[in-house]
UniProtKB/TrEMBL annotation:
InterPro entries: LipidA_mod_glycosyltrf_83 (IPR050297), RgtA/B/C-like (IPR038731)
Lineage: Bacteria, Bacillati, Bacillota, Clostridia, Eubacteriales
Pfam families in alphabetical order: PMT_2
Localization in the cell: Cell membrane
Listed name of the protein: Glycosyltransferase RgtA/B/C/D-like domain-containing protein
Gene Ontology process terms (BP): lipopolysaccharide biosynthetic process
Single annotated GO MF: pentosyltransferase activity
Keywords: Cell membrane, Glycosyltransferase, Membrane, Transferase, Transmembrane, Transmembrane helix
Cellular component aspect of the GO annotation: plasma membrane
Signal peptide start-end: none
Claim: Transferase is one of the keywords in the record: yes
Amino acid sequence: MQEIKKKKRAVALFVIVLICLCGWWAVRKEGFFLDEIYSYGLANSSYVPFLSWLHGGEQVANGKLPEAVFTQSEFLNYVAPQGSTRFDYASVYYNQTQDVHPPLFYFLLHTVCSLFPGSFTKWTGLGMNFVLLGGTLAALYALGMELFADWKKALFVCALYAFNREMISNVTMVRMYMLMTLLTILLALLVAKSLRRPSVPKYLLIGVTIYLGMMTQYFFVVYAFLLCAAYDLYLMFRREWKNAAAFSLPALAGVGGMPLTFPCWYAQLHSQDTVSLESTANNLLDLAQYPKGPLELIGWSIVGFAVGAGIMAVLTLTKLGQRWLPGKLRGTTLIPGDVKLITIPALAAFLVIAVISPYKSLRYVYHLQPLEALFCGCGLFSILDTLRAGTRKRILQIVCLAMVVLAFVIEPERMYSGTYKIDKELERYSQAACVDITGDLGSFTSGVQELLKFQEVCVVPDDSSELLVQYNTGENDTLVLFIGGRGLWQFVTAEQVEQITAQNMETAWNVARQGGYEDVSLLATQEFEQIFVLKK
């Protein structure tokens, strides 16, 4: 009875701190990454996957933007479903046939957004992600209980995953990675249960989970393949041929179901230079870049998963020097076989994705982090179990305090602090003329949050456009000018930013002289664009 009360208090404390942490950073998220705008657009626009498809523009991915005057309603229709376009899953499916990702995440996001028609807000995406996080933690706890049969160890693994920068970066990014994380842990849980109690229903659920994961993000297949291969080898080593066949058939059916229900997957994987099977093969064959990708992601992961990285370092040193250690620790198995079968494929998948991914970004391996936490937590408890109860308790308290403090202090990725201040400034000019000089679809789309402040936006490729001459008559006392497409986000040095700013300022003065404006000021420099205010 006392143990049950202790467990309830611990779980309640964990949930309360987690809610505070998620709320703390959710409130502080002020802007959207470009891909997050695409999430809303592809999920909610009615058969218009990209803004470039409007006004007779090129109807291809990354198409050339038309010279046209876009209205506020066109931007809103792109990112938010309206009354007649709610729960229109045929449109979502069509939009994804034009993109580079499978549609499951977009179906889910469209469902949530359809409950709030005409509303474009971070809270629809974040609310959905928080629910997915809850499911992930429940599955991770069940996985810990399956492997450890100890609620304290299972809850610690959940805390190790939940209270760190990478998890918050994942849950506050409105993309498919939180859904992929949930499906990854469900797959690991089903395989772990099958280790002890194999059955056809579990194998069928594994096949369904693999199918859903494949319909979420293509990188899901890396861990799924390695885990299934490890489990198949385990069964064959034990000469359980019937179980091996009963497991393999649903797993293969799950993989095969994806191309049958989403046949454009092959075209997607050949549609772009950076996101394609060719680029993956090139990365795989380029031996010179093998150390670079994994080392970059490991370095970033050390910062994002600081406590876990510290535990991993302790485990590595312990393993290397175990034969010389005194007492019980010398003969202790740090990671039992069943935990290895579940987690080693995740560590291997981390390295594989680090090599083959088109961009070196932690978001491609977010889904593996709960399994990294499981590995680290298991090893840590193997060490702590050799110590006295008092020492073990103090170490755990220090570790838990460190992870919670760091989770609240280290800012996650993609918070875009300062965006609200820019938005308030732009609201003052909501009746002003607005021009967007953009060189590519990405920089234009990234500014949708700001462009929604205006009744209309004149979109042109450069300051010599005839449409700009017709629009920029100087009738308004103020003109807000967006200039993007010059790769600002790629430049990291102050000197390079100054060069781009100087070019953009020259363009801004050309537009000012054209419309009779006498004052030009730089309002903001953002990831893909700069915003200028021109006044009489």
